[in-house]
Design a protein that fits this description.
The complex is a heterodimer of chains A (166) and B (738). Chain A is of the alpha+beta class. Chain A has helices at 30-37, 93-101, 110-123, 129-135, 147-158, and strands at residues 9-15, 18-24, 56-59, 62-65, 78-80. The chains are: A alpha+beta (166), B alpha+beta (738).
């Protein structure tokens, strides 16, 4: 993909609703672009090799690992990160459920976990507990044993009333 | 918010919005990036380092080697056997040079250009071989051969106790090493200000110990060093001692005058390690016919890796912490930690005692089988009581272990399952205890272990300054709850400032499950002191009005409102023998697990279907957080039981230093965990609280091992319980139920 003269390649993205235009080297990953260029540090790098899921973001609605995604390969894409989940200062129902259920401990896996859960519930709004387990299998968490994370996602899938978070 | 309610963790809002600023999320103008040059050999002397090519690369600012940081360091003052950069590499991955450059890519390229001339030395990877007279000398700190530490202690008359037993079970176990794998890799940023001194931002669980070592190694006055600990993306013990990379960024910042960041790659985290020690354990345990335990003989050979780390303590814990919850009439321990040419082991959640706990609890299960007793009933007959001392003289002021056993027995429907489920399915039980902090600090001193400062603003806001380490376990929530309880303010009116040695009073760190006990008590004392002074001027009924009114009255009458509180540990609750202070704690937590498993006899795969965990934490200040600690602990134990191993090639190279190869449990491997809180209250704990962060891990592994035995009749005495081990144990088919 490197242009023949080694120059940068211009890409256009929509990130959390904002148009972003950047000239990047061909090896620039989406995780680097988000964290270093756009300061969207909610995208976490736990391994940089696609194992942990902490850098999961939505690319055109699909959960994708930002550390393995080359920016030049997704020219024109729409990106959603954890920073874009809140609407008008209100938490997304999954964010509110994570707070209410104690699903976040250290918080390092939380953004990626949330985005995987968003993608899952968009595809399968009434996902069962087993479907939730399968849908989150690409996101490691070392703190929680997953119990309260799955509880939180299940509560949203079941449409339980969550305490609105301030 | 009051003590014991389910108000959400105040930190969760930052977590779910991505606003938590972890160390690697911070950047500073002009910041350089550093990279370590690591040894490709398990044991090799550095003959020469030629950094000319690296320094010639545009963008490279500095290269440092052992000569730049000659002072040895280490978390325990008596075993300072590490250098920030080694002159002799003692494991594959031991850092020998460090490069600082304008960006990470340049630093990576420059590190590859550092030319090291090695004299390769013979290496030794196994502890038994390391203790042989002809073994290569791994670590020069060892007084004899490769022994870090060796402990022999005896309590009561073991030989008589075993001779008088109706049954004695002897068994040997091999506990594989495992690592923490906190999702956040270690990261440190050094900043030098000629006027103010050195600031190091780091992913450390022990800002205070890092502060001391930075000052000592970099030859700075302690008041010229500031350590900032941002919220950690998990710790589990893997960030609980000073590291060479933290000293390197300090040195490089001083040399270059620029901020310097060093972030470990995931592969480097596997080599940095300091995780669970591999241990070989030999246990003999006796009992009378009616199920009274008699004597226990425990011999442990500990694989320490290349450096001491907390190894002196590990060597004691490996023996000393099996003496409760069950009463023993005689006990003998013989534990030895050997240096080997592998990444150094250290404290991982349940430091030093998870391994002997596995061996002990499986041996108890064998004994129950030999005596034809229910293993829960056998444990019930031997419970230590509150106020009793263990055979090695630790004072147990409170114990809820009996309740823990009752709870898991009922919840799991144990009586209808044990020895009654169809072949291939089984249940197992195990119990444990753990310390709530240690009574003696790492370095001898008579100052408090933790202090808290409160500042009350006339707006009604209360700010809590505490040096305690927030790493997701809920320090901020715990301190907030105490302040709300004592001062009647709302959670939103409390701001907690932690992890900054310039701003907060000292706390010794986030290790050994000490924070609720120590920072909690310090905070409680400060809050009560403040409340008493407010009451003096605002009237005893001040809590019936909005607290801000009373605060204003108090400020008008007394001047600026603040308070300090500190906590130091009791010093009279251990034996007078050498080593009797190690393992002595203000209070002990207790846990019982029942695991239910399915064993696939065709594939050898073990599936844990459910874990029931009852944990006596004295009093749950934040129950939801306590449950989270119980669930997370049980999960972490499950991973060690079934999947995880720090395994090495004969060359000393790690067999799979990635999160995928290492094999952490995912959502699909982790069952629902039923967390049950047992509250009896402890006289020393704040509101009766004891630890909850490490104890609940201990019984996971033996409960699963015992359940596998119940399911298919095999004893797996080596970890992890992989399909290959299960299949090997099943052939030839044992005489089990069918």
């Amino acid at each position: 993909m490197r242009s023949s003269d080694g120059s940068l390649i211009e890409v256009h993205l929509t990130v959390n609703g904002d148009a972003v235009r950047r000239a990047v080297p061909p090896e620039r990953t989406l995780a680097e672009l988000l964290r270093e260029d756009l300061l969207l540090t909610g995208c976490k790098q736990g391994c940089d090799q696609g194992d942990c899921g902490a850098c999961t973001v939505l690319v055109d609605g699909r959960a994708q690992l930002a550390c393995l995604t080359l920016v030049v390969a997704i020219d024109g894409a729409t990106i959603e990160t954890v920073e874009g989940l809140q609407q008008r200062g209100r938490l997304h129902p999954l964010q509110a459920a994570f707070v209410a259920h104690g699903a976040a401990q250290c918080g390092f896996c939380t953004p990626g976990m949330l985005l995987s859960a968003v993608a899952l519930l968009r595809a399968s709004p009434r996902a069962s507990r087993d479907e939730i387990r399968a849908g989150l299998a690409g996101n490691l968490c070392r703190c929680t044993g997953y119990v309260k994370i799955i509880d939180a996602v299940e509560a949203v899938a079941r449409g339980d009333d969550e305490e609105p978070a301030p | 918010m009051t003590i014991g309610d389910r108000t959400p963790n105040p930190r969760a809002y930052d977590a779910v919005t991505g606003r938590t600023r972890f160390a690697d999320d911070l950047t500073f103008p002009g910041m350089l990036h550093a990279r370590l040059v690591r040894s490709p050999h398990a044991h090799a002397r550095v003959v020469a380092i030629d950094a000319a090519a690296a320094l010639a690369l545009p963008g490279v600012h500095a290269v440092i080697t052992a000569a730049d940081l000659p002072t040895p360091f280490g978390v325990i003052p008596w075993t300072q056997d590490e250098h920030a950069l080694a002159a002799k590499a003692r494991f594959v991955g031991d850092p020998v040079a460090c490069v600082a450059a304008v960006d990470e890519q340049t630093a990576i390229r420059a590190a590859a250009l550092v030319d090291v001339t090695w004299e390769v030395l013979p290496h030794v990877l196994e502890p038994a071989a390391a203790l042989a007279p002809e073994a290569p000398r791994v670590n020069e700190l060892a007084k004899h051969g490769n022994v870090t530490k060796s402990v022999q202690l005896a309590f009561g008359d073991l030989d008589a106790a075993l001779a008088g037993s109706d049954a004695v079970v002897a068994a040997s176990y091999d506990f594989a090493g495992s690592t923490h794998a906190a999702l956040e890799p270690h990261c440190a940023i050094g900043q030098w200000d000629p006027a103010g001194g050195l600031t190091v931002v780091s992913t450390t669980q022990v800002p205070h110990y890092l502060h001391r070592e930075l000052a000592r190694v970099l030859e700075l006055a302690e008041d010229r060093v500031r350590v900032i600990q941002p919220p950690l993306g998990g710790g589990f013990g893997g960030k609980s001692e000073p590291f060479g990379h933290e000293l390197c960024v300090g040195k490089l910042a001083m040399m270059t005058g620029r901020p310097v960041k060093l972030r470990l790659t995931r592969e480097e985290v596997f080599y940095t390690h300091r995780g669970r020690h591999p241990m070989h354990l030999d246990v003999r345990l006796g009992a009378t016919r009616d199920g009274r335990l008699t004597g226990c003989d425990l011999r442990v050979l500990i694989d320490g890796g290349a450096y001491a780390s907390f190894g002196l303590v590990t060597t004691y814990y490996a023996g000393q912490l099996v003496t409760a919850p069950l009463r023993l009439s005689a006990f003998r321990l013989d534990t030895t930690r050997a240096y080997t040419n592998k990444p150094p082991c250290g404290p991982k959640r349940g430091h030093g005692s998870v391994q002997p706990r596995f061996a002990f609890e499986v041996t108890v299960d064998r004994l129950a089988e030999a005596l034809d007793l229910d293993p829960i009933e056998l444990r019930r007959r031997n419970c230590l009581e509150a106020g009793e001392r263990t055979i090695n003289e630790f004072l147990v002021r409170s114990t809820g272990f009996r309740d823990c056993l009752d709870r898991v027995e009922r919840a799991s429907d144990w009586k209808r399952k044990h020895r009654q489920l169809p072949f291939g399915r089984g249940v197992g039980v195990a119990g444990s205890f753990y310390i709530s902090g240690t009574n003696y600090p790492i370095y001898p001193n008579e100052m408090p272990q933790s202090a808290v400062q409160l500042k009350v603003d006339r707006s009604g806001k209360v700010t809590v300054f505490s040096g305690a380490c927030e790493m997701g376990q809920g320090v901020e929530a715990m301190l907030t709850a105490i302040v709300c309880e004592e001062l009647g303010v709302a959670p939103g009116a409390v701001r907690v400032v932690t992890g900054d040695t310039d701003l907060t009073p000292v706390d010794l760190g986030g290790y050994s499950s000490r924070t609720t006990m120590m920072a909690g008590n310090a905070c409680l004392r400060a809050a009560r002191d403040l409340a008493a002074r407010v009451a003096e001027v605002a009237g005893a009924d001040w809590r019936t009005r909005p607290p801000v009114e009373a605060f204003r009255v108090a400020e008008a009458r007394l001047g600026a409102l603040g308070a300090v509180g500190s906590y130091d540990t009791p010093k009279d609750v251990h034996g007078a023998y050498r080593g009797g202070t190690i393992g002595a704690s203000p209070a002990y937590s207790f846990t019982a697990h029942v695991a239910e498993v399915t064993v696939d006899v065709e594939t050898g795969q073990v599936r844990v279907d459910r874990l029931w965990v009852a944990h006596d934490c004295g009093r749950a200040l934040r129950p939801q957080i306590v449950e989270g600690q119980i669930e997370g602990s049980a999960y972490m134990g499950l991973g060690e039981a079934l999947f995880e191993e720090q395994a090495f090639h004969p060359s000393g190279l790690h067999r799979g230093p990635s999160l995928l190869d290492y094999g952490l449990p995912t959502t699909l491997d982790t069952p629902d965990i039923v967390a049950m809180i047992v509250e009896g209250g402890d006289p020393e704990g704040p509101y009766g609280a004891k630890e909850a962060g490490e104890g609940p891990l201990h019984p996971s592994i033996p409960a699963i091992a015992n359940a596998i035995h119940d399911a298919v009749g095999i004893r797996l005495d080596a970890l992890p319980f992989s399909p290959a081990r299960v299949l090997a144990a099943l052939t030839p088919r044992p005489t089990g139920r069918s």
